[in-house]
Amino acid sequence: MAARTIFERRHHNLFSAACARRVAALATALAVLVPAGDEAFAGPPPPASEDDYKSLFPPVHEMQDPTKRQIPRQVKVPKIVYRIDTRGPEEIFRDGFRVPGVGTNDSVLDHIWGHSTRAGGESAGEAANKKGTTNLVSTTSELNEVATQWLASQFSLEPGQRPWVYVIRPDENFYSVRITLDKLKDIGSAKEKESAELALQSVGYHYEWDARGGIRPERVHSAFQIDVIGNQLKHVKDSVRINPAFDRAFEPKANQAPLLNGTACAPAPTGRVKRSVADCTTEGPQERAPEPRQEGPENKATQEVPRPAANPDPEAELAAREAAAGKYFEELATKSGLNLVTAEGERLAPSQVRATFAGYERLQPPGRFAAPTEARAWASKAMSAGKISLGVLGVGAYGYGLYRVHATPGASWGDYVSAYTSIVPGVGCVTAAAADAARGRTDGWDTAECLLADALLWSGNPVAVAAGLGIHGGRLMSQWWHSKEAPSLEQFRQARADGWNKYLREFYAPKRLAALIEPTLLDHQAKQQLTRAGLINEYANHLAAAEQRFQARRSAASPGDTARSEKEWGAEQEKLRADLQKALDDGNKRAGIELDAAIRDRVSSTLRKEAAAYNEWFAKEHLVNTDGRWLHAGLDPVRNWWFNLTHKGSPDGSNTVEVHLNLVRSRLSAEVLPVPSAQDLAAGDLAAALQQAIRSKDGLNLRDAQDTALLTRHAERLRKAPKETHHAVSALHDPNPEPRLVVLMVEDSKKSAATATDQLAFAKEWRDVLEKDIAIVRSGEVSYELLDQNGKTIDIPLPSLSELEAHLRQAQRDIENAEKNAQEAERELRQEEATAQSSPSVPQKPKSRLRLPR
């Protein structure tokens, strides 16, 4: 650290030590004003007490308008839940919350609609047999719902009587009603789907979590009474009751899976009933067989009456959908060249990747950044200790000192330790002396003066405090004067700059830079392949679901409708595949930008570390052999005598060189060498390193020769003139080759265009590329420097301006022809559809799509 920074740290220690005793007022005020909220139970809970209740809830809770409640987009797993009940804490703390039934029915729908509660089942039929069978106890994670239920008069209370609100820590037996209803909408029967949809509209905003099998008494933390005045939910004074049996060591872990056991009951006509008060008295919507079509005389002989669809089996539907999704996943993964490799180097087959997404095994390790419970507990203890030790003025001085040491480039570990311990009297002096010793400066007198001044400040005696302030002030001024006596550093800086520039040239060598960025390439490639696998899996599921819908329609349709369904199915397949390709292309572009930033950040951060290490080496090692006679040549005798005296040197100046040398080391070590930022790194250097990594490493697990050629081509693009504006590696995953090289592949691309629509799209894209190429050639800003596998420069002939203009004219003609072909294909398609509708009994052979003329 520079001398000035060291002196400022002494200055901070001066004020922080003086005020270290004044800690209680500010620290306590800050602790009271910051609400802890749910995070009070994030780590191991403290012993249950009334302080827990105060940390959980503010004294006044603003209620929301019940008419404006909305279903949340996502379900947040709660750490605490609430339940309102008329029973007192003595009973609940002793027995917990038992299920209001015999506990044989886990159906969430029956519980919501009241069929399985004690008051349910009054209607005839199946619902009557479910009365009193529920195995669920309702809670909510939203305090507003507690007040809303009370204001809705769902409880029969005596005048002046108030219900109790219980604070509960959920365990794995707590299930989200919202998650369960969403799942039933996807996989339930038709009756369950409709009932779940209505239930979600009625109770989706209740934030309800149902406890399966009841709630154990040790999960109940506390109870309190509430009152609603105006639009504010207030806690009744002195109503808090803490459960002495609460399990303080238990971690909250509500179940995030849906509760799918049991069957559903249909809702009542008036929506959700009051819990344990009424029942849904009517059966829900019934499934009706589709009405048969009326046969007309014109097609009665050829058209079959569609068969009524059988009631679907949810498990069979799910199995069929999973099988179809697996088939489409393998097809799409093979076509797109998906290549996922494990950490052991084993390549995963598409079926293995699909099994991973289906939930049979984990593909990635758990998150590395999840804070363990011990760390949270340690942080909580550290904050408590900090509140005791900080004072009103000490907090400000201490914080400013930490800011300064973090903002000072070149600070060593000793500087950080000194800054963090400067608030402790005596200890700060010792750590500061250790930091100075690491810089090559040992001053026992200064350390003794610091310890004496701290002792005087801590004594509390006004005279002693004034003396301590005077000693610290004298130390500060003396060290500041010493910093002004430092000789010129220009010749040292010049020698250091020459050596650093030479080191940079070695650092930018392709082989060394390639070894540096290779881990980033490997990591990025693995993440990109995993992302591609996720996209393919998603669209495989879409294709499977679409195919299942098509099969269902075809089984119940006539031959004429079957032909139409097949065309619709073909169009839907084509759209889904096109959407997948677009998503993959967009992902490639994003991945290129991310890789560009990752490579640049890695190189830049490494350069910063190398610069700090080189500067430290230069200051400590290189100056040893430097002639130091110039150090005291410009000092007059009086200043030289004062310098030696204050630096504990000899009066005759025999050790002036050594003292000055230590001071020069201290100042040089605090300076920062120039390092290019991540945005300023030369594209050519990164390109050469990228090519070197591709040539020298076979372990990149690239996707056959296609990835190798792609990376090589874009590495070559980076070596062009710097006038081009693209990022260094931003186009790394761009599936299209360099526009100037597209000319060589135009004929092959024409042959690959299958349909008239494809031909038109290709012709327009080709026209845009040519227009861009012509603009670049006219500007004269294009140049190439391509390397072969041996690193030698090769020449690639560029098309002339006249050749590009000829290609552009041909592209315009291709667009006109493709538009005509597309219109003709559309007319033929409409004619085929009209023919199929008029004569459904005669199968029509579809005509092939038009192609571009060779």
UniProtKB/TrEMBL annotation:
Disordered as annotated region, ranges: 276-316, 553-572, 812-854
Q: Which Gene3D superfamilies match?
A: Heat-Labile Enterotoxin, subunit A
Write down the SUPFAM superfamilies for this protein, in alphabetical order: ADP-ribosylation
Question: What GO cellular component term, any one, is given?
Answer: extracellular region
Species: Nocardia pulmonis
Regions of compositional bias (Basic and acidic residues) in chain numbering: 285-298, 563-572, 812-833
Q: Where is the composition biased (Low complexity)?
A: 834-845
User: What is the name attached to this protein's record?
Assistant: Uncharacterized protein
**Which GO terms of the molecular function aspect are on file?**
NAD+ poly-ADP-ribosyltransferase activity
Looking up InterPro entries in the UniProt record yields: Borpert_toxA
